[in-house]
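re the bet — no i am not wrong, look at it urself. input seq straight from the record:
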Amino acid sequence: MTTDAVVTTHGLVRRFGKQVAVDGIDLDVPNGSVFGFLGPNGSGKTTTIRLILALLGADAGTIQLFGQPMPKAAAKVLPRVGAVVEGPAFFPYLSGDANLSRLQAIDKTDNPRTARDRRAEALERVGLTAAARKPYSHYSLGMKQRLAIAAALMRPRDLLILDEPTNGLDPQGTREVRNLIRSLHADGATVIVSSHLLSEVEQVCTHVGIMSRGKLIAQQSLDELRAARAPRLRVDVTNDTAAKAKDALTKLGLTPDDANAPSMVMALGTVSTPQVAKALVDAGADILQLTIEQPGLEDVFVELTGAGFDVAG
């Protein structure tokens, strides 16, 4: 556990009947990080977020937010948090701007003198200025998602929690949210991005926590998580010399993956790349390419869980 954490949990448990949705997790979100909370749908990510925000009560364990115990300190610390949890919900007959105004009106800590300017700034930041007066019922799914993010940005936040923030967005909208997360991070905010899309997490996050069946099975900086896994060698040869290549690699003690025979991937172990190249040439294999591949987040997830999930959406 770090000494400078925005969110910490210890032994956190939540059950729904006989089902254990969150199973004794010790979460540690470093201050100033973009923390990718990763796992397939149903792994316990959203339940954990709802527990952190005091939207649910825990069956066991403790939660601290900015070093304060939750839910006891909720009134004190939650104004420092902006969150989008599950699907956005607004009044369908009101415009985007009017919906944000309603949210400001029910917030007793909001400053009415700056309310209009802050709404305009939030809408601009998520690309909804042109649709500010448009009824919410006429918004696309992606626009609804962006309005929810705007609602979380109407005042300065030290922590942003975004649950599936790119849900329903087209590629352009996804890029905009990705850039927004980077911008928030650059401004000094800590951001938690809960997602089942590995590609999105890999592009924006500095740290990762991986959930599987209610358990937190890994949490590290993204660089540390990758570095702990050995790089692999990819060998591409011509079709007619693939058998010679595989035989030469096997004699070196390597175990190539022959799912696609002319293109083989393997762990190097103590064998060097020049040794591999020499063995292939001596065996008469026609080398098209030798590539060292660093493990991606998908590789790490499959290694840790023995399963994969939707990596592209």
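see?? Confidence is low (pLDDT under 50) at residues 309-313. told u. also The chain has two domains: 5-227, 232-294. so pay up
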